[in-house]
Amino acid sequence: MGLPILAIFLIQTMSTFAIGDIHGCLTALKTLYKAVGISSDDTMIFLGDYVDRGPHSAQVIDWILERDDRNAFALRGNHEVMMMEFCRRKAPSNPHTENWLRYGGAETLASYEIDPSRPDFEKIPSRHWAFLDRTLPYHEMENFIFVHAGLKPGIALSMQLPRALFWQKIVGEPQSYGDGKTVICGHTAQRSGEIANFGHTICIDTCAYGGQWLTCLEVESGTYWQANQEGTVREGKLR
User: Fold this and answer.
1) Strand arrangement of the beta sheet that strand 138-140 belongs to
2) Does 56 share its domain with 98?
3) Distance separating alpha carbons of residues 43 and 238, to the nearest angstrom
4) What's the 3-state SS for 202-235?
5) How many domains is the chain built from?
């Protein structure tokens, strides 16, 4: 017996969305989510960098934790790496960690009402640390790989190093990762506010914290929505 018509319709209309680097831009995030109309049946991938630079890092994490998105995947960005290493006094995996306050950490501490000159990291809720601890290095689907920064071609996903996953910048045109899959990433801020589409690689960090746009991409169709901190929304489609 075949599936009921309604069930077939629901399967066909479920979508996969990716949201780029949020960086504490809560207004843009709320505006974007409302404009897109994402349902709990859709798959949502957050590409990391929830914290730093924008004004509401703590509130962004709270908002994500409050969502009832059963198919949501939160990736880890380099700013989460820096925050976790700095606040927990871990040996830094990257020299940027030691200067985290300069790279947006001061704004993150302010969102927790923590004085950067006398930081009390106990004010950061345990549920926020639990969220950061379970963020993923990447997420793979049949036709797509989602990662915060980038991948080294010819290396299996399970063997990718942190410097690629969390720190690798796009300089010029990136190499194709291969496997016939499109890489969806953030990290390399597109200060024009436009998505960087290389075909095999699509970067959707469109510099929300820098006065530009936060991007949500529906990966199968190429339709995208963008919102800014002023509450403005625009929509387009990749070419």
Assistant:
1) 138-140, 144-147, 182-185, 201-203, 196-197
2) yes
3) 20
4) EECCCCHHHCCCEEEEECCCCEEEEECCCCCEEE
5) 2
- Residues 38 and 192 sit within 8 Å (Cβ to Cβ): no
What is the pLDDT, as a whole number, of residue 1?
Answer: 45
Q: Please state, for a pLDDT cut of 90, what percent of the chain lies above it.
A: 85
Task: Note down the domain range covering 48.
Answer: 37-134
Q: Are residues 175 and 227 in the same domain?
A: yes
The residue whose two tokens read 């990447």 is 138
149 shares a domain with 109: no
Same domain, 81 and 97: yes
Asked if 41 and 129 sit in the same domain, the reply is: yes
Q: What is the pLDDT of residues 187-229, one digit of tens each?
A: 999 999 999 999 999 999 999 999 999 999 999 999 999 999 9
Report how far residue 113's alpha carbon sits from residue 120's, in angstroms, rounded to the nearest whole number. 9
- Please state, for a pLDDT cut of 70, what percent of the chain lies above it: 94
Q: 157 with 108, same domain?
A: no
pLDDT at 47: 98
* pLDDT digits 0-9 by tens, 139-185: 999 999 999 999 999 999 999 999 999 999 999 999 999 889 999 99
Q: Encoding tokens for residue 230? A: 């002023």
Q: What is the mean pLDDT of the chain?
A: 93
What is the SS3 assignment for 74? strand
DSSP string, 98-152: GGTIIIIIHHHHHHTT--TTS--GGGS-HHHHHHHHT-BSEEE-SSEEEESS---
- Amino acid identity of residue 98, one-letter, is E
In a domain, 192, yes or no: yes
